[in-house]
Amino acid sequence: MPRMILVQLLWTVVLLVPYVLLRKRFLYVTAASLLFDPLSTALSEKEKNKVVFLHLMGCHTEYRKRYPHDFEQFKGAKDKQGKTVDAYDNAVYYNDFVIDSMFSLLRDYSQLHPDVRISALYFSDHGENVYDEGDYCGHNYSDRIPHANVEIPFIL
Predict the structure, then answer these.
(1) Which residues form the domain of 144?
(2) I need a surface site. Which of 12, 17, 103, 154 has the fewest CB within 10 A?
(3) What's the number of domains the chain is made of?
(4) Domain for residue 102, yes or no?
């Protein structure tokens, strides 16, 4: 029977790419050293069956802290709301890169090891309202929950 590996990419409040405060700017540690290298190590371990859980911060509020400067593709807004939307779009852009990189790593591993079955599951704990409904941003609501907060990605 082939070995089986299940990888769950769970987008939660655990920070994927930790940052440190340096001269009032954030310095990002690469996702490769904090996520991809340990995932590669876990895949190479010889256990017959395994489950690997990866927790990502994804696109939670304080969006400008969720991506390295190299991924700042959306910029130029003049007002606070526009800057927030730009930062959110950059966070989504970076998150997409991270997820795509992990799926590519798993695909490459699977092609090198055809005797191993790999399944990957990606889902979020909630969506994010970024001025989609009302003048609100984030996911702290006491009286009503915007539809954007309950629409979540789920990829298998």
Answers:
(1) 3-56+94-155
(2) 154
(3) 1
(4) yes
- Given a contact cutoff of 8 angstroms between Cβ atoms, the answer to whether 131 and 84 are in contact is yes
Give me the residues paired with residue 51 across strands: 6
DSSP symbol at 81: H
Strand partners, 154: 123
Residue pair 11/56 in contact (Cβ under 8 Å)? The answer is yes
pTM score, whole prediction: 0.76
- Quick check: is 16 in a domain? yes
On the 0-12 / 13-18 / 19+ scale of CB atoms within 10 A, 79 is exposed
What sign has the CA pseudo-torsion 123, 126, 128, 129? positive
Residue 38 lies in a domain: yes
- In-domain check, residue 15: yes
Nearest to 7 by CA among 32, 34, 40: 40
Altogether, the residues listed in the chain come to a count of: 156
d(CA 73, CA 153): 22
